[in-house]
Amino acid sequence: ITLGAVLIAILVFIITTQLVRNLPALLELAILQHLDLTPGTGYAITTITKYLLMLIGGLVGFSMIGIEWSKLQWLVAALGVGLGFGLQEIFANFISGLIILFEKPIRIGDTVTIRDLTGSVTKINTRATTISDWDRKEIIVPNKAFITEQFINWSLSDSVTRVVLTIPAPADANSEEVTEILLTAARRCSLVIDNPAPEVFLVDLQQGIQIFELRIYAAEMGHRMPLRHEIHQLILAGFHAHGIDMPFPPFQMRLESLNGKQTGRTLTSAGKGRQAGSL
């Protein structure tokens, strides 16, 4: 090993480090911005290219100082034993990260639900994936979880999601009129898409109340809460315009005197916001 070879090897390592550090910006300016790629695909290309550069730079640098593959086999064997014991979880997450980048079950910008967590994917690294929830908290999830566990990707092939609202109406209300009020509210809501079309069903009759189900569709996951807010306001306005009160379940209350004797009088709710019985 000569001094010149060592200096060249150091130079190779420095160049490799700079290339890996600046590769995403270079690829974006030179190639990716001219291609019709999703953000997840572009990220996968830059990540895999960085791994290849690190591997090539390492092999070239070590070969310059006389460390060849034949001399590293024992080190690889020892590393394999270590992976089989203490580093198996790290290795499993690394391999899972590569699988995620190639198969793309999740991508940057996807909305996912795993366990009790729902949020948007912001980073996919070699060991873990970063998810930002609706409170803007960043949660680090090991990549292995996305390979071995069941999860929901709300935007994998289609970002449209269905929103189901349960709307009560008084028993004496005209069901066709209520249906039209709900459909009108859906048509007027700015966040409800036209295809698939909104649907209304009378799904149950219980305790003097009609239960309707309004099924509508949002263009993306982030629209679901604003959509519910807007359409609830439209439904309340429609009920008020047609003189329909929001019902509540009827109940009876038995009254007793202070000495424990029953008075025999009952206060009854009619389920429409007024009393049917009296004291």
TrEMBL record:
<dbReference type="Pfam" id="PF21088">
    <property type="entry name" value="MS_channel_1st"/>
</dbReference>
<dbReference type="InterPro" id="IPR049278">
    <property type="entry name" value="MS_channel_C"/>
</dbReference>
<keyword id="KW-1003">Cell membrane</keyword>
<feature type="domain" description="Mechanosensitive ion channel transmembrane helices 2/3">
    <location>
        <begin position="47"/>
        <end position="88"/>
    </location>
</feature>
<dbReference type="InterPro" id="IPR023408">
    <property type="entry name" value="MscS_beta-dom_sf"/>
</dbReference>
<feature type="transmembrane region" description="Helical">
    <location>
        <begin position="74"/>
        <end position="102"/>
    </location>
</feature>
<dbReference type="InterPro" id="IPR006686">
    <property type="entry name" value="MscS_channel_CS"/>
</dbReference>
<dbReference type="InterPro" id="IPR006685">
    <property type="entry name" value="MscS_channel_2nd"/>
</dbReference>
<keyword id="KW-0472">Membrane</keyword>
<dbReference type="InterPro" id="IPR010920">
    <property type="entry name" value="LSM_dom_sf"/>
</dbReference>
<dbReference type="InterPro" id="IPR052702">
    <property type="entry name" value="MscS-like_channel"/>
</dbReference>
<dbReference type="InterPro" id="IPR011066">
    <property type="entry name" value="MscS_channel_C_sf"/>
</dbReference>
<dbReference type="Pfam" id="PF21082">
    <property type="entry name" value="MS_channel_3rd"/>
</dbReference>
<dbReference type="InterPro" id="IPR049142">
    <property type="entry name" value="MS_channel_1st"/>
</dbReference>
<dbReference type="GO" id="GO:0005886">
    <property type="term" value="C:plasma membrane"/>
</dbReference>
<feature type="domain" description="Mechanosensitive ion channel MscS C-terminal">
    <location>
        <begin position="163"/>
        <end position="246"/>
    </location>
</feature>
<dbReference type="Pfam" id="PF00924">
    <property type="entry name" value="MS_channel_2nd"/>
</dbReference>
<comment type="similarity">
    <text>Belongs to the MscS (TC 1.A.23) family.</text>
</comment>
<dbReference type="InterPro" id="IPR011014">
    <property type="entry name" value="MscS_channel_TM-2"/>
</dbReference>
<feature type="domain" description="Mechanosensitive ion channel MscS">
    <location>
        <begin position="90"/>
        <end position="155"/>
    </location>
</feature>
<keyword id="KW-1133">Transmembrane helix</keyword>
<protein>
    <submittedName>
        <fullName>Mechanosensitive ion channel</fullName>
    </submittedName>
</protein>
<dbReference type="GO" id="GO:0008381">
    <property type="term" value="F:mechanosensitive monoatomic ion channel activity"/>
</dbReference>
<keyword id="KW-0732">Signal</keyword>
<keyword id="KW-0812">Transmembrane</keyword>
<feature type="transmembrane region" description="Helical">
    <location>
        <begin position="43"/>
        <end position="62"/>
    </location>
</feature>
